[in-house]
Amino acid sequence: MLSGTFSARAYSFFDTLAWIAGLNLLWIVFTLMGGGILGAGPATAAAQILVRKRARGEAAPLVRGFAAGYTRNFGRANILALPVMAVSVALALNWNYFSAGRGLFAQLMAAGIFVAAIFLAGAACYVFPLYARYELPLRQYLLTSSRFAVRHLAGTVILLFVTAAAAYASAALPGLIPFFSIGAWLFLTGWLCDRFFTANDESVAEALAVEPDGRAALQGASTA
């Protein structure tokens, strides 16, 4: 019995590693197909859709599913991704400028920009998992991700830690990037976000209890 359980777990582990490696390769290939800037958003959307399906135990062909998700969401995903990229570039340029200054004002500005960048990174981690799970107007995804990041700080800290760990591992071992780094980050953040959203939905459903005066009260932040 123990041997069978161990074999099943080992098979599941290595199957997941192979799946992550395939996801990593597909993300790079399809991002390059879109010229980098225009390919990253659709590739991320396609990846998170597949991660959500895998998290739910749904069998989906990796290559065909990725290609379909990339094509189907090309325009909408770019509308989501390009503003985030533009703000990220602006924050990076401004931080480089002010961090080089020696005055108090420059250092305060650099610190403020750094805090804003951390907030942006936390909110950005939710955007495409949210997109993969819920049907919302496009303008609502960024707003809802920002609100969720603030109201669920523990989850946001976990996502930032995963992001920092992936970035550190990639910097220390660049050879991981073509094989695992991006795919592992996409898988872990997508899997975690799916759990966070599920817990939030359950909490909201419980909060929709009828009060004594007959009105329903919604407590917490619903992402649906």
Could you characterize the architecture of this molecule?
By secondary structure, this protein is mainly α. It has one domain. Helices cover 82% and strands 0% of the residues. Helix 1 packs antiparallel against helix 2, helix 1 packs parallel to helix 3 and helix 1 crosses helix 8. The longest helix is centred in the first third of the chain and has 32 residues. The relative contact order is 0.11.
Summarize the SSE layout with pairings.
Elements: H1 2-33, H2 37-55, H3 62-72, H4 74-99, H5 104-133, H6 138-151, H7 153-172, H8 177-207
Briefly note the structural class of the backbone: mainly alpha
> What global shape is seen?
globular
Give the biggest sheet: none
What's the structural domain tally?
A: 1
Average pLDDT, to the nearest integer? 87
Write a short abstract of this structure.
With 224 residues, the chain is an all-alpha fold.
List keywords for this structure.
single chain; 224 residues; mainly alpha; 82% helix
